[in-house]
Amino acid sequence: MTSTEKNLSLDAQNLHKYFGGVRALEGASILVTKNKLVSLIGPNGSGKTTFFNVVTAWLEKTIPKEHEEMESQEYSNSIINWFSQRFDRSPKVEHEDVGHVQFEDVRIDGMNTHEAALTGMLRTFQTTRNWPKLTVLENLLVAPHKQTGEGFFNIFFRKRKIREEERRNVLKALEILDFLEITHIRDQLGEELSGGQLKLLAIGRLLMTAPRLILLDEPMAGVNPTLGNKIMDKILELKSDSTIFLIEHNMDVVFNYSDEIYVMARGKIIAQGTPKEIETNKEVIEAYLGADY
Ligand SMILES: Nc1ncnc2c1ncn2[C@@H]1O[C@H](COP(=O)(O)OP(=O)(O)O)[C@@H](O)[C@H]1O
Ligand SMILES: [Mg+2]
């Protein structure tokens, strides 16, 4: 592995996703460097959420017809890899032209959603989900994280360990509430929260699992600018431990906070660069996306 590869969090190349006749992704590629904030922008319907869905294995990528043969080639490659690993030869992952998603050194495409969620990448959704009848604190405690509690032997022999783990989780949840400055609403029910508070809670639930790659789909939507900036400041603080991949409509936020920006239109990446580079690339952006973007 070269040093550049070691610095890569996400390597998603040549992704296609078709919904019947709708070509949501048409060969989109993105590289996300570790401990950076990388944004994906583009007009509504350009394929941004679909890109997240394929990257996190919520949706399976489409193999375009002309590449079906290559897919069977890829299948034989995976057998070769299995053998080379088994016999302790260096496994060589050949990425064919059918596209691939790699998170750090793990190949994600081909995994199911659950397997992908256990690799250390985690996402939020455009619409915030939570438990309406649980309090904010309880919402954090039911966030998915590794728990000892499951399994027959655990129940009988590991009660103490479970209690310690619960205590640790509560402490962690309290720390996160403090970090997000929402300790004062910890006993409020999920259904009583404002849009902005729900966004913060969603980030809190994410933090319970300490993901190495965080994918945020419009975390600022429906949030007032003051709170939006606060959320972004919190997200920025996470860069020391995590990598952030952000879909966001608010261009001030995108241009102020991103290390790198990718521009998507009609399922393809049409521009990529630092905020400065994209800004000076404005003509391209305007030509493709209209002056509003
Ligand atoms: N589950 C789906 N079934 C059918 N079409 C979909 C589905 N999800 C997205 N699309 C279509 O794919 C295109 C890209 O959508 P999306 O990825 O949500 O765009 P964005 O997030 O950039 O607004 C749109 O034309 C949308 O209607
Ligand atoms: Mg979207």
Summarize, please.
By secondary structure, the protein is α/β, with parallel strands linked by helices. The chain contains 12 helices and 10 strands.
Give me the secondary-structure topology:
Elements: H1 3-6, E1 8-19, E2 22-33, E3 37-41, H2 48-55, H3 68-86, E4 100-103, E5 106-107, H4 113-117, E6 121-123, H5 136-141, H6 152-157, H7 159-179, H8 195-207, E7 213-217, H9 225-237, E8 243-247, H10 251-257, E9 260-265, E10 268-273, H11 275-280, H12 282-289
Parallel strand pairs: 3-8, 3-9, 6-7, 7-8
Antiparallel strand pairs: 1-2, 1-4, 4-5, 9-10
Helix pairs in contact: 8-9
The protein binds adenosine-5'-diphosphate and magnesium ion.
Residues 48-49, 126 line the site of magnesium ion.
Structure, explained:
The structure is a single chain. By secondary structure, the chain is an alpha/beta fold. It has two domains: 3-63 and 98-130 and 212-289, Rossmann fold, CATH 3.40.50.300; 131-192, no CATH class. The chain contains twelve helices and ten strands. The chain has a six-stranded mixed sheet, with helices on both faces. A four-stranded antiparallel sheet has the order 2-1-4-5. α8 packs parallel to α9. It is globular. Bound molecules: adenosine-5'-diphosphate and magnesium ion (MG). Magnesium ion (MG) binds at residues 48-49, 126. The site of magnesium ion has 3 residues, from α2.
